[in-house]
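Technical note accompanying the year-one report. For the benefit of new consortium partners, we illustrate the data format agreed upon in the data management plan: each record pairs a sequence with a structure-token string. No post-processing was applied to the example shown here.
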Amino acid sequence: MFHSMTNIIKTASKWTPSNRRRAGNAIVEAALVLPVLLSLTFGTVEYGYFFFVKQSVQGAAREGCRAGIVPTATNTNVTAAIAASLNAAGLNASTSTP
């Protein structure tokens, strides 16, 4: 019985006011650093999406050129090839113009 009481006292004595201040400092530091880390993370995702869109538009232009190089090609064929390539990438082709 006496042994378990000393463990309780030791556990209770671990939370001194200085330890509580340290725990509070950790929360404040996390609150200051977390928005910066989230901004960097979302910025990295947006940067990656930019390269995805850039590559998709370049691929669509390439497909349009391939469709337009044929001697019997029309503007409709080129536009359809570009739209199909952009739709395959998940981009809205109706807002783009050849």
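Partners are asked to follow this layout when depositing records. The chain has a mean pLDDT of 83.
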